[in-house]
Amino acid sequence: MAIRQGSLREKLLSVKGYPEPGLSVVESNDEDLQRCCCSRRVICDKIASFVKSLIDVFGKAVRMGRSDPRKIVFAAKMGLSLVLISLLIFLKMPLKELSSHYVWAILTVVVVFEFSIGATLSKGFNRGLGTFSAGGLALATAELSVLAGEWEEVLIVISIFIIGFLATYAKLYPTMKPYEYGFRVFLLTYCYIMVSGYRTREFIHTAVTRFLLIALGAGVCLVINICIYPIWAGEDLHNLVVKNFRNVATSLEGCINRYLSCIEYERVPSKILIYQAADDPVYSGYRSAVESTSQEDALMGFAIWEPPHGPYKSFKYPWKNYVKVSGALRHCAFMVMALHGCILSEIQAPEDRRQVFRRELQRVGIEGAKVLRELANKIKRMEKLGPVDILSEVHEAAEELQSKVDRKSYLLVNAESWEIGTRAKVQGEPQESLKLDDEENEVLEYKSRSEAVLDLRSVMHTNWEFHSSNIGMNSRRIPDIPPEMKKQISWPARISFDADAMPHLEKSKTYESASALSLATFSSLLIEFVARLQNVVDAFEELGEKANFKEPIDQSAMEAALLPIGWWTRLRRLLKF
Amino acid sequence: MAIRQGSLREKLLSVKGYPEPGLSVVESNDEDLQRCCCSRRVICDKIASFVKSLIDVFGKAVRMGRSDPRKIVFAAKMGLSLVLISLLIFLKMPLKELSSHYVWAILTVVVVFEFSIGATLSKGFNRGLGTFSAGGLALATAELSVLAGEWEEVLIVISIFIIGFLATYAKLYPTMKPYEYGFRVFLLTYCYIMVSGYRTREFIHTAVTRFLLIALGAGVCLVINICIYPIWAGEDLHNLVVKNFRNVATSLEGCINRYLSCIEYERVPSKILIYQAADDPVYSGYRSAVESTSQEDALMGFAIWEPPHGPYKSFKYPWKNYVKVSGALRHCAFMVMALHGCILSEIQAPEDRRQVFRRELQRVGIEGAKVLRELANKIKRMEKLGPVDILSEVHEAAEELQSKVDRKSYLLVNAESWEIGTRAKVQGEPQESLKLDDEENEVLEYKSRSEAVLDLRSVMHTNWEFHSSNIGMNSRRIPDIPPEMKKQISWPARISFDADAMPHLEKSKTYESASALSLATFSSLLIEFVARLQNVVDAFEELGEKANFKEPIDQSAMEAALLPIGWWTRLRRLLKF
Fold this sequence. Notes:
mainly alpha; homodimer; about 575 residues
């Protein structure tokens, strides 16, 4: 949005540079006629483009209304409160003698009327407190200043400076930020009463009038905002948390599918490289969950002002725990982010090796996403976890992946370049091995003896095949590159073209080994993701306990009801294949 | 801050529950006396605690002022503008007949006076535009409504509803968010002029008066805010980006040092698990860089309003590129976050194995942090990069690490559990190998033949030693656990205590292998971090180009000047060792 502000400003600045019509009146008649036609055409074009942009704006407005009808309701409510307050002023009711200060009532409606009820209450409270305390202080100072006699004006001016200084300084203190608006109202009220009172000598009248009219405006706001189609910040927070869970689940699945189908970025969108919003569904999924921190905090700040309503039945409802659950989810989302980093990286594991772990990786991904979706549904329906351990499946899948990695870890390393292997052939680098501690050396000795018998040529051969198949695979990459894409990180390029002592072959091997290790990284990040799920479940259970979620509906009874269809479907599937 | 708001509200609610003094007057005299003493003591205590909290608040205020003296200046400027506007009203100058509407001038000062000049200009523009357009529209509607005769009131009320609806609906459109304040002012002005004009029949007078007084208030604001000790949002943005670079560098170094000295979290602070601010320096370093997105956007939104000043000499200064550089840094910071994840994880590589890579890991860490600090200094001094490639050292270090990992990758895997090794002994699981594609099978056959000769007992033995030394190492962990710490993720616990078919020994091995792979993960994340640095350097170069950074001071000349001292120091060091 800040960018938009900039662009508008630029537009405003560039207006000055426009060619002004009607500058060339001194030209010949013929040209005049042409110009006239021209200018008429220009005017027509302008009208057409104006109408077009009007239709465009209308279209956008309709789309916004469809995507969130509450916005239309809110705008209508705002219009209604303004009408109501205007009518009260027109009809000079209910406080006839106050109507010359009606501006405060309008101001209150315009300022206090917010989208959610929590925000309205919070602002109303700020406004009330600010007005009330400033009013009291102003009356006290006014009494004092009258006693001061001829120094009255000086006293008033000094008091305004001191109060202005203190209130402004206090509102800069970090924990005072939610009361920022209250401090502003405080200052305004104090100055207004002092100045107005000095002019009219009606300090008390001014203060009371102002307070009553603000109360009137706030009353109209609250009645209309709460009684007609209330919009709750708490509900928004609840939905936001659910949405975050679903987004991370989608991202996780997307990451693993892309990794296994080897869809690489030919060029990484530059927006991802500078962490701005981009269209990539995998990226935007976890990004929205990571970025929602401030939105959650704001919604929580409003939600705690809201009275019990709908399914949120208790006073002191644990809104904080919703934010906690979302924070725990974020801790998981960072692992999905790191997984995505493996896809973004230029060093990629060969496709064939990925396929060896396909089943296990996919299973962990599916089970992980299932857990996240299940939790999302539980939060949505406000249900506790059942007696079944929600994590057992995903933990089992992760264990399976781990043991597969364990059994096949030779695929993750490049045995040919092991120091112990080459040492048997080349009798160089004694310094290096001397530096190692004794225990290490022992292993090396053992290894080097045994390794000498180990024929590694076949592995090397296959590695090269893997590598070339990886290069051949490039044709599978996403084909069309939009112009806003940026050149990819030039890491392996550096490795290949750097002119130092290492021969080219060794570097290729290093690249190869790095590429194989990248698969190990992907698996261990995925396992770490699974480990972090426990934390989310713990946070969820705490929320369920504090918010009094209902016990889950008996699953077995539901399954029993669905069983015949289940069997029928399975049978049909069996017949099909 | 939202939490604070909550706590205040809770405090306010709990006030009701206080025991009221003076409820027990019907008791005996003796008790009365005691009670009197008691209440006197209570009052004394209360006064003492009040004085104490007052001193506390004062201390906090002094500390805030010391850490950022601009806050004091800003508060004093605010006081000064209020005094100035009050004096203008007192002296009934310069527009005598307007002084009955002085409230608008005070309101403008209170609302428009913001911390930075950009913010003040942006708000002032919003206020001016809102007032001006609403004034025009209101006058037009007023003319129309007069023509409507007896339907005038109906027309006014309907117009208020329509304008209220449209303006509120428009401000909800996402790209309109920076103009939110403008829409509010628009609504207020429109309603005020309509209502006031209807009452006094002085539509034009009201509109013009209001506009002039707002202009007066805004003028006072701008003059004081710009002429006395100006505070620029652009400068803040510049410093914020520099600070982010330094924080990430500190985090990176901290991560690597902790990893190498095996300082593990006995219990991970629960704040990290739910991604809230915590004291941990490694965590807070990268967190502040990751979390500064919204602050940067806000500062950029203000900075583009600021006229050229100080070192930012051009119109259309590329503030956007500062945000871009910071975004690219954030992309790196996510890798530091993932590195920190390796320390947070319960599955840890054995210390002895980490020590094998100590020199390389440390070098990458030091060089990486050096690059970040160097970039921070360059941005701070607004200098371009020199002819020397800033990344050459860190790339070399990363290559060294990679080749070390390559040579010693047998330390990263657990060869004893390789399928191909066990197959030679156990003739089981033929299904598994059948599923693999032919090429894979070929490798396995080759491997199994060669592996049969390979003596793996020694590796196994040493692995167990590593493992036990890892357990013994626990005594090095941070000893005291504050109560707000939470139980760690129960991942390996699950593995050990789960009662399924796998025997206990195999599980331990799986854990062991996972722990060794964690070292591989750490290294490859570190290498990915280095790869992402290129992206930061690119963004920096773009910034340097667009913002016209100066050419760097000739380093060799400076070094030549420093050379004698350098040599002397080196000599001394040589003599010392």
